[in-house]
Structures are given as structure tokens and as C-alpha cells.
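#random but structural
TW: two for the price of one
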Amino acid sequence: MPEGDTIYRSAATLRPAMQGGIIAKARLRDPHFEVDRLVGATVNGVEARGKHLLMHLSTTDVIHSHMGMTGSWHIYHVGQTWLKPEHYAVLNLRINDLEVICFSPKQLELLTADQLRRHPHIQQLGPDIAANSEFDVATAVGNLRSRNQTPLGEAVMSQRLVCGIGNIYKSELLFIMGFDPFAPVEQFSDDELHRMLQKGRALMLRNLGGPRRTTRFGSDAGRMWVYGRSGTPCPKCGAEIKLRRQGEAGRTTCWCPQCQPAR
């Protein structure tokens, strides 16, 4: 899954290419929706909401995409060679003399304003940890507290509680905090949860400019503390970094048993 900073960078890249432009042509690979509704519409805004990307149109329709594991939006000059095979292109928009293409999304749909207001996933998102506006950390802590019996490493990945955290930030953030990913939320105080979320937000905001996500900083540092480093020595204590699948979805958790002792 993409992390919240990935979607924010995508929105920041798409915004100057699309915002204020008129969609001159639109081609959809499969009949997911009436693609003709897009032609002639002005793109009023491109918004990241957690792991969701929303393109707001002058018609009040909204193009909603969720990239999943392999999806992405690309921008090309007309006639430029694409970096991905054509059969992966699901939606192709001609706007401002550019081709804006959605490749391999997990979900792509055209929503009316009313459908957006009632959308079962978007409207139930928790506070966005990478939001440009103020992050409602108190609500996020309360949401986590409502899942007291859930292991912390699973709870912070629930987009209904706090949105934007994926596998990488989950593993890195809990390591930095020294928190056991497998202990239930009830084992952590409100202050600890508050500090964890604020640290996660600081890391994510620091990475919004890209190009390479980094959670470990210093002249002798690699980019990550534990994620993708299972079986290697912990950079802090030298113990072996472990990997375990966590939750019903079997999401990857990397951690150091020495630095993140069981609670």
C-alpha cells in the first residue's frame, strides 16, 4: 500500500499540470463509468486524503482513485514515450496539451458530489496525519483508544482511526518510539499515543518533498531503521531485526525485540 506522503507527492505533481485546465479528451480502458462526462470539464482541484486521490471537476463530479500496491499517475507530453506498457493504462486524460494517465489503480471511479459525501471509505477516514491543515491528534488518540484490545501495529494501520500510515511508517515509527508492535493499545498511555502520532506526522511532513523517503537521518545513516532490514543487526543495539506478519491482512512488521521490548 502507498503511504500518505506518496499520495501527497502525487497530488503536488499533478496539481500544476491539471488544475484550471479543461479535459479535452478522455479514454477509459474498461467501462467503469461514463467517461464522456469528463470531456469539457475544468479540473478545479487535486486533493490527497490519506491514501485516496481526489480530482474535483467543475461539473461537481470527482475522479476518485486508490493506487493499491502498484497503481500510479503519470504525466507525459503528447507523443512522449510512456514508462509503463499501454495495457496498464486505465484512464487517459488530455489536458493542457499533456497526457495524464492512471496506471493499474486498485480503485478508480467517478463520483457525484452526493456520492462523495456518502462514500463508505472516504467519509469514514480518521484524521489525516499528513494533512496540510492542522492534524486533529486528540481525535486520532481517541480513535485508537476505541480499539484498546487491538495490537498497536494493527491499530495504527487502520485508516478509520488515523489515515496515511502504511507498512513503512508503522515499522519505523514504532521502532523510533521503542513501542512493542504486538502489545494492545491499552498498554500505552494517551501521552505515549499522542507523542507517537506527532512524531509520525513530523516524519511524514519532512518527506513530502521527496524524492526518497527517509526516517533515519545522519551522515552515517541508511534511510531506514528497521523496515526491509530483517535478519540484519539493529543500528542501535546490534540485536537481530525481526519480521512478522501481523493482522488478518498479514501486513509486514519489522522490529527490534531489544529496542522494542514486549509490554
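TW: number two ↓
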Amino acid sequence: MILAVETSCDDSAAAVLSAEGAVLAQRVFTQPAQSGGVVPEIASRLHMKILPEMTAGVLAESGCTLGDITHFAATAGPGLVGSLLVGLSFAKALAFSSERPFLGINHLAAHLHIHYERDTEDLFPAVALLASGGHTALFHMTGWNDCRLLGCTRDDAAGEAFDKTAKLMGLGFPGGKALDLLAERGDPTAVELPSPMGGAKNPEFSFSGLKTAARLAWETGLHSPEDMAASFRARVCGLLVSKTFHQARKLRASSVMAAGGVAANSLLRLRLADEASAAGLRLLLPPLKHATDNAVMVARAARAELDSDPGAISPLSCNAFARWEGDRLVRLCR
């Protein structure tokens, strides 16, 4: 029985997973945007206020008590360090007081593990696209225990580009969803935009220049909001899809996975589905409620670690970290 919490940015989340892996209860609270963005200090304080009541709520909903929980898990990073420390400290305290193991989980691995299942037939090798407000990366997975980085963004993440362009257009922050809806009524060829690092063979991304080009085009006043949104969305999704499926063909993947908040984008989901169907590949897309930050993905990553090593544990000295660097992504943080 796993109780997991997630506080890597401005979403407070908690979930309980049964011994069989069923989601018994889950809750997510998205904090209201502050000053057009996330203010780390305010986000941290709201996590402290929300998390105890939220955790009590998921325990009650699951029909469990703290005594029923065998493992506690929390996101250790990457993310906003202040926010991460709230969830880490909370989960560690519960584990310590209950004399149960604690697992610190890598946030990027957690996103990918929203798809975790014990039956891996026809799943691997896989190419995984992780695209969110803070991260954009491609991974090659030969199994749940072997995930290697192919390439990532050199500057802005895809989700950040969506949100900041939406904010520029007066759609609010975060505005990725609003931009997606607006784009449905526009012409994706109306605004000429560049494709930075656009070669499909290059597994790395860059969205800063595209974001600047969109701002300059918008400031001309020549384009409707609908056309601007549609053109920008088409360019970002085109870059994500072309690079993902080039790697899938190159590495002879059996499946393609997508994860992260941008995986909720309607055009991206459609294009991924079309490409996967044409290539004869299995496609794994997260349910919309599990694309953005949530605690179910943290719990599933912890479960995968325990399936691999029943004695897995993180020390209580496991600390929060802002950035992940390396070429091999592992779940457990020590």
C-alpha cells in the first residue's frame, strides 16, 4: 500500500495505491496563478496549508488508515526546491513516525511511469516523449529499469512556450489549454513561423526563438487570435511529433509513449495517434487528468521500484533538487 504526494511546482497532489496497484483515491489541487505566473514562496506556503488535509482526505476516501500504508513516496526533484521540500518533509515525517520505508522519486521518471504496467509484452523498446511546462525530452526505453536520454530542450520547454505565448495573447496564465481551444477555430498556415532546430534527426529541441517569433508576429496586429494560436500550436506539435517518430524508426521501437502536461494538447494527441497508426506502433497516451502533475504517477514509479527491488528505500537525508542532469534516468533518489 503506497501513499504518494507530489509538490514539484504549484500542484498539490496525493494518492493511495493498493497492493495490487489499483488507485484507491487521488486528489489534485492547482493553486491559482499569482501575478501571471508561479511565485515559489507563495506556492510553498500553500502546499503546507493544503497537504495535510488533502492527505487525510485520500486516506478516508480509500478506506485506509496510516497504519495500513506500507510505503510512503514523494517527488524529490527536479522542480521548485521550496515546493519539493514541503512534500518531501511531509512524506518523510509520515514514514518516520509510522516506521515505514520512504521513497524519493524523480519527477521525470514519475511522468513516464503513469504508463507503468507489469505486462510489458510488445511495449519495449519504446521511445518516450516527455513534454511539460518545465521539461521537454526524448528517452529510449528498453524496459522500465533502463531509460536513457536521447535529447532535451536547450532553452524553454514546450509547455512554457505555450503558456507564455498564451499570456502574450491575453489568454491568461497558465494558458496552454486556452490556446489549444482557440486554435481549433484558426488556420494553422496563416502565420509564418520558424522551426528552430527543426531537423527531425536532431533529438534536441529549442522553443525560445519560436516564442520570440510568435511575439513579433503578434505585435504586428495583422493576425487574428485564432490564426496565431493555430499556427503556433501546429509548429510546436510538428517539432515534437517529427523528432519522436524519427527516433522511433531509427531505434526500431515497438511503442511510443507521451507524458507531461503538453500530452493533453488535442492536436499533439491526434498527430501522435495518426503517426503511430501509420507506423504500426503501439501508442500510450495518459488520461487527461494524469497528463499534468499528479500523485498517481509518483505512486506508480514507487511501485515499479518496489517490484524491481522489494527492499528499495531512500534515506531520510534524501534532498530536493532543482535540475536533473545525466543520460540515464532512474526512479529512486538517494
